[in-house]
Design goal:
Structural class: mainly beta
Largest sheet: 9 strands, antiparallel
Shape: elongated
Distance between the termini: 40 Å
Number of strands: 9
Strand order of the largest sheet: 1-2-3-4-5-6-7-8-9
Radius of gyration: 15 Å
Number of helices: 1
Order of helices and strands: EEHEEEEEEE
């Protein structure tokens, strides 16, 4: 599917039980994903991304966890994880050696956070 100006593919399972509103309330999903040419607001698009996901619908809001993240640019590889926060925004934390990178936002529009200036 098209996402963040690139392509994203996912493979996983979806489970639920009940009827009516219980179907969404009991929904869980897990799997893996890969992507290419994804734009998070950096000078160049990420060449490739991959990882695992776990999604659950809790009474307050959906919860998404991302693990085993691997994002590659032309010459660097970042690894890390992410999760939705209490406010519903997704926070992703990545490292490449001593470099750290954070992304946050809604699933519809994630972006790299600007580093704090001294």
């Amino acid at each position: 599917m098209d996402w963040q100006a690139g392509k994203l593919d996912a493979d996983g399972t979806l489970e639920t039980s009940g009827t009516g509103s219980q179907l969404l309330a009991n929904l869980t999903s897990e799997g893996t994903f890969t992507g290419a040419a994804v734009d998070f607001g950096t000078p160049e698009a990420w060449r490739s991304i991959s990882g695992s996901f776990n999604l659950a619908f809790l009474p307050t809001a959906p919860r998404l966890r991302l693990t085993g993240l691997n994002l590659r640019t032309g010459d660097e590889t970042y690894t890390g994880r992410g999760a939705t926060q209490e406010d519903g925004r997704l926070l992703i934390q990545l490292t490449s050696g001593a470099k750290e990178l954070r992304m946050s936002g809604t699933l519809a529009k994630l972006k790299v956070e600007e580093a704090a200036r001294p």
